[in-house]
Amino acid sequence: MKVAEVGKCEQKKISKLIFNTIIPRPIAWITTASRSGVVNLAPFSFYNAITTKPPLVFVSIGKRKDGSEKDTVRNIKETGEFVINVVTKDFLDKMVETGNDLPPNESEVEKFNIETVPSKKVKPPIVKGVPAALECKLREILEIGDTPMSVIIGEVVVIHYTDGIFQSSKNIVGRTGGKRYIVIDKEIELR
Ligand SMILES: Cc1cc2nc3c(=O)[nH]c(=O)nc-3n(C[C@H](O)[C@H](O)[C@H](O)COP(=O)(O)O)c2cc1C
Asked: Which residue has the least CA distance to atom 16 on ligand 1?
């Protein structure tokens, strides 16, 4: 095997190796709302669960190329609320579209005609048709790394789910390296 020693090789290579080896990453397709009510939707794959009691999750969000804060982080800081939508195969193209930068006052759900339904305890809505969604309230934000990344820690307060997802994860999308994705097709259940 080859070796990439941090500090002795290009950062680009370290990033690529991290993206390609810590896989598949779940995708948090996050709805937030600005103070004035503009709904924002964007995907993040540096995301996972921390604990189940209480149910805590983290999402790690970087800056835009110009160094400014992404809309998702700004909205979460302003309102303390977000919703994580679970992405299936049917939503793959829409999810990728919402990963492009839009100005803060432009809503991805309006621009890309994405229908939403209201949440129960938070203002940001749920993407209509997803098999699960986690309503979250902000617990804390850590600023980590050279960029730095905002690591959002959220507490899940309501979980929406279908009977299907309670039994199986089929059709759920994850991210692998670069622009590659995985769709869960076959799960192996061990006894
Ligand atoms: C599948 C996918 C995963 C992504 N994961 C992350 C991530 O973990 N952290 C991050 O900062 N950006 C990530 N991005 C990029 C953001 O989605 C992108 O910067 C988006 O424009 C941010 O939108 P916002 O400014 O509306 O919050 C990802 C993009 C895609 C398509």
From this structure: 99
